Amino acid sequence: MNSRREFLEVSSLAFANLIAPNNLAAAQTPAAQSAAVFRLNDYWNDLPNRMIAQVNAARTTRKAALAALQSSAAADERLAMVRSRVWDLIGGKLPETPLNPKTTGTIDRPAYRIEKIIFESQPEFYVTAHLYLPKSANKPAPAILAPLGHAPEGKCYPSYQTVFQNLARQGFVVFAFDPPGQGERLQYLDPATQKSRFGPTGEHDRFGWPALLIGSSTTQFEVWDGIRGLDYLLTRPEVDPARIGCCGHSGGGTQTMYLCALEPRIKAAVCVEGHTENLAGADYQPPGAYADAEQNMIGGLKLALDRGDLLAAFAPKPLLICYTTNDNGTTYSAHYVAGTEEIGAELRSLYSLYGAAEKVRLFTSPLPHDYDYLHRRSTYEWFNKWLLNGQSSSEETPLDLAPEASLWCTSSGQVLTSLGGRAAFQVNHDRLRSIKSAANGQPVDKATLQSLLAIPPKPTHLSATSLSTTTYGKVTIEGFEFASEPGIRIPGWFLKPASLTSPSPVILIADDEGKDRLFDQWPLVEQLTIAGFAICTIDLRTIGVTRPRLPSAGPDFYGFGVELAYTLVNLSLGSPLLGQQTCDVLRALDYLETRDDVNKSRISLFASGVSGLPALAAAALDARVRSLFLNRTLLTYESIVASKEYHLPPSAIAFGLLAKCDLPEICALVAPRPVWLVNPVGAQGDPVPLTEIQASYPASEKLSLRVQPGPLDTLLLEWAKKSQSQLFTKN
Q1: 698 pLDDT above the threshold of 90
Q2: Cβ density class 493-531: b for 16+ within 10 Å, e for less
Q3: Which of helix, strand or coil describes residue 649?
Q4: Digit-coded pLDDT (tens) for 645-679
């Protein structure tokens, strides 16, 4: 029998014979009835239901805090807290290094001129920008900082140029800068097409996920670009520092929200079609209002902070929020309009405490997602009112269109091609090396690891249920489930020799393809059970039948990003899926301890692929794992941060984990128990040379480490037998 299909065919026939008419009496005996308890289990609802409870709890706490504000003094205290916490959530302030600005060209037009500027927001991290200077303005003039939305063209996107040109005609200095991954700052350029390989949101994600590992974020990159851009803007004699505005559309709208919270020099703001809905909305449906890397407040809901707090922190300064009903369920979640209106109501209540209700306003356009004419006109009117005292007209002049190449700040249209410097992934890696240097090799302890992964305390009681029992050949197969956390059921299979008369050693298995993959390896199962082993295999949370469901609303918004959405919302809750899966492995050990047919001192753990990461963490935290076998598991997290190309799902990430420890340090916590690393992989899932493995996992007298390439089945059987015969005797 060489396939799962053959096994299923034969076992289904055996079961059919069990309940055939001539066996009916036997099948109806109490023993037979209890041996086959089948039921439909909706495991895919468990994680969503848990998230509903957590998100709603965060919402209740946040709403209570807002309701308790009864004075401007109380509001000041909360908003100061918000500003401080937001910095922590995005990775903190960066050092103010030299800007080294350069003007690389000028475009002269009748009513204004454009200076092409390049500056360094971080050392050798170049930002390309346009400075629009009105010719007729009284000097110093009010100025607008303009973060950009997710247009591939960046600052050259036509509707954005239209806004900037008209603001300049009306007397405003405008500073528009390309975000990393857009315009002239592509991080993943396709040489054949001279375009991004991933698009703007894809680029932000590609360098954003590794950034989370070191406690940074795409948000930190972009916010810092904006703050340093403002630093440059304020060096210009044409600018009045007391009259600074900020406006951005879409992703630039979201950046405007962050700058509203973190940049006190901004005096008036317009947020156009940004992510103006709370994640913990009034009608939360998992996974909820997630977005790409820079639009999620990682850890925010754990602190009962939400997107509305970013805008609240701007109070009582003039704030206009523009949105379109067309974004409902497309650009944003199916609750976007209601969420935006909810934030509007929160802001009106807050602004009223300052006697400034007229300084906050919502404006709706019926047009599709864009910085459309209606939004542009509202922008002109808002800044004219608050920064020019109504002295200018809000009428719009058509776009001065020019070839994109004529607008480039660089000779080639790309910073990395023309100037070199550091790509975003290199900035991440340099930051990691600085962190490691400052840590000076300080080893991680179990308490720190448990905190980084947000592992809950061990419960006093484990709820477990046997679902079915049948025998095939010489193997007894039992289906079961246990509660890893309240409301989170983990299903699994327990296979043991049918002739078992005494507690046996057990191999606990976690596999990326789920628990049912075990039946694809039936010959190996038979060899292990003949050798006296029991096998326990489980579906970790989000794997196999526990993979969370598609939401009932907003399928066009979620597309294929459901797994990503669940990952990001759980990170926002401060509960990384990596830690939740580690918890599942730990509770599986608790389950095995409840069984009389298990030798509790001989539990070994096998994991394959990404599942090896929670398995390694569980072995580090729990000495009941007496031996560990990892197959095709990532060698180091640092390889992900150091690589431009990598393959790692965001679900394998915990915020700030790598700033404290990498996988070799976690492995060291397993000592002196034996660890087999079989076919370990690098950042792109490729085999790792032995020299690299040895450099990453230095020899240790305490850790029994075996690095082994080779066929999985042969090595797994060898490992199991050695575990039983000799390795378990070590203390």
Answers
A1: no
A2: bbbbbeeeeeebbbbbbbbbebbbebbebbebbbbbbee
A3: coil
A4: 999 999 999 999 999 999 999 999 998 899 999 99
Provide CB contacts within 8 A for 657, sequence distance 6+.
213, 452, 453, 578, 637
Q: Is 314 helix (H, G, I), strand (E, B) or coil?
A: coil
Q: Give the distance, in angstroms, between the CA of residue 719 and the centroid of all CA atoms in the same chain.
A: 35
Amino acid at 253: G
pLDDT at 21: 31
Q: Which amino acid is at 298?
A: I
Compute the average pLDDT of residues 463-483.
96
Burial profile 208-244: b = 16 or more Cβ within 10 angstroms, e = fewer:
bbbbbbbbbbbbbbbbbbbbbbbebbeebeebbeebb
Which residue, chain included where needed, has tokens 């039948």? Answer: 545
Give CA–CA dist 692/152, Å, rounded: 38
Domains of the chain by range and CATH?
53-414 (3.40.50.1820), 502-726 (3.40.50.1820)
> Which 3 state secondary structure label does DSSP give 523?
helix
Higher-pLDDT residue of 176 and 283 is: 176
What CA–CA distances, in Å, run from 559 to 152, 329, 551, 569, 610? 21, 11, 11, 16, 23
**In terms of Cα–Cα distance, which of 56, 72, 52 is closest to 64?**
56
| Residues pairing with 117 in the sheet | 103, 129
